Amino acid sequence: MSMATRLSGSSGKGFAMDKPEAERLYDSGKDPTVGKLLELDQENKTLKAKIANLSTDSTNSSKPPSSDGPQVKKEKKRLSRRKRGGQKGHKGHKRELLPADQMDNIVNHYPSACRNCAAPMDPESCEQTSEPTRHQTFELPQNKPITTEHRCHELGCETCGHRTRADLPAEVAQSQFGPRVHGAVAYLTSVHKIGRRGIVEIMNSLFGLNLCLGSVCNCIDRVSPELEPVAEQARRSLPESANLNIDETGWKCKGDRRHLWVFVSNLVVYFTIAASRGAKVLQSVLGESFEGVITSDDHSAYSCYHKKGLRQLCWAHLIRKFKGLKETRGSPDAYVFAKYMLKEMGHILSCWHAFREGYITRRQLLDATTLPKARMKRYCLKYKSSPDREVSARAKRMLRNWPHLFTFLSHEGVEPTNNVAEQALRPAVQWRKLCFGNQSENGERFTERILTVTRTCQLSGKNPFYFLSDLMEAAFQGMPRPSLLY
């Protein structure tokens, strides 16, 4: 066996070369030596990639928190010195007592004997010395479906003898199940991400209502078209907004790739599913142009659509990028550049939080952040020519997006992060992990409509179940539908 063959075979089991073996490899000639060096170099690159992947989590990359392994949580626990539970100085929360007129029952309790002398006590003869202490309990009602039988009678005409049977009212003929059943099915599906079989079990176990899978699907099919004008009303309100937070995530329809977009304003949370992740989706939702400020990540679709408009890039994304750059320690430039940028960004965010809490004015905020902004630009200009490609690319990208980094400092209602849109997407992402997307275009339309309605209700403080029930009640009765915005 040649030296090269022996070395190659040993490397597959984890080759560790000592000095004599290195000398034998050197003496074996040019080709075996070069081959072994290339093999070791490739192995080194593979191991570096694995190490980088292991050190990447949601705190230093765009990975979602759900992808973090248990080791990440353990490391965070070791870094924190706080004890479990409520912290010292934390303001407690307790249930407020309801007014007496809102209670279904009031039960009075009186002492039967004196705790001092053991004499019997009677509320009729003893004086009440203070107001009673109040303790309220809450219990679920015993649920039983409200069942109604509709009887269509037949009468014979006294004039001609023709027999005529009465027709069911239109609101009754539509379904065996009432508006609140339809509202509950839609609510459980979207807000709590319950599957069809789970809804059948909940309806049977909690409400004593025997539904089959087909009935659940029929309820959803009836709710979906009623949601369309409500969701369209939300979409039409978006172009009038002063500020919008926009984000997108992956989706599936029958295994094909889709994108779930979310648009968040002060009034509505609007969802739409599209095959594209490009600017044409923004045009279809917002029109040819948008007059307000768009807060988003640095995806190219936003810059392509909103070329001349004001934007705010999400600082949470930028901070994660710089943390990843710092922790990989790919080069001295990577560590130093990321360290300096994170320091200045932290200072600016501290000033921003002081402004949010009312400790400084907008003018003081702008003055306090002038020097950190200048230092950030100087670092970017310095490191854009770095031999480290990742550092150079990050510095150039910061300079290219410079006009969109600090909009939040001078414009009312603009936040430095896109957390509002990301939080709006989170329930949809959790739903996607359970249902694996949709299986039809009708399913896509229901998904975007029900997410729009329920998340907008939560944003405005409305109860989503009550709104859905009222919507279906109006649909059954043929009355005007309730508004989502008022």
Can you offer a commentary on this structure?
With 486 residues, this protein is α/β, with parallel strands linked by helices. The protein has a domain at 315-417. Helix content is 50%, strand content 8%. The chain has 18 helices and seven strands. The protein has helices spanning 3-11, 19-27, 30-54, 70-79, 170-173, 179-190, 196-207, 213-237, 279-286, 300-305, 315-328, 332-356, 362-368, 370-383, 389-400, 419-435, 441-460, 464-477, and strands at residues 154-156, 163-165, 243-253, 256-264, 269-274, 293-296, 311-313. The strands form two sheets. Strands 5-4-3-6-7 form a five-stranded mixed sheet. A two-stranded antiparallel ribbon has the order 1-2. Helix 6 (179-190) runs antiparallel to helix 18. It is extended and about 115 Å long.
